[in-house]
Task: structure prediction
Amino acid sequence: MKIAIMGAMPEEITPILEIVGEYKTTQYANNTYYEASYKGCEVVIAHSKIGKVFSTLTATSMIEHFACTTLLFSGVAGGINPSLKIGDLIVATKLSQHDLDITAFGHPMGFVPGGSVFVETDKELISVAKDVAKELDKNFQEGVIATGDQFVHDTKIKEAIVKNFGADALEMEGASVAVVCDALHVPCFILRAISDTADTDASFSFDEFMESSAIISAAFVMKMVDKIIE
Ligand code: ADE
Result:
């Protein structure tokens, strides 16, 4: 097994690199990949840069070029479900692209022919997460995550995303990574800690809590790696 551990921003993978300790750095396709042997298991760590295009490139590179066989994503998200507070964890059971729009042709939001509105994540990895949550006494919510190339800071947009997808949280990479994993038959796990609630003050909340929430998510994902390889 070779595990890909992905984030979008440097702050999302720095805590992971700190836990792993020693690694080799490889440049590939305009990005930096950190390869390590963590407790005897091969891992490849990278931050993709923000958005669906860069995260698609990184997820594909990790699978096709670095031969990763499982992918775990760790990072932050804007909360939509009012029960999600800053620092809370959400695990995606399925994800959608909230900005994919050919409704002009009668299709639902998030749908293009040959695709599907939702892409599911791996149930076994969610079950590993449940075991970790029990051990750490740190709960997470399971739910729908909506992904788009947009930092949402507007209640009206949030409401439209809830109406279209029943989403609990939103971010900018999860669905594209899940689509890659689904197509290439690689188990996928998307974890996010809440940094803001996608309202008018979202950018301030994000600046204040992004780093601390990224650390919460990274610590949890590394406990999952421990569990997967034990
Ligand atoms: N990631 C964290 N907060 C977000 C927001 N409000 N919109 C999009 N992506 C995010």
User: Anything to note?
Assistant: The first strand starts at residue 2 and ends at 7. The helical segments are 10-20, 52-64, 123-136, 155-165, 174-184, 202-229.
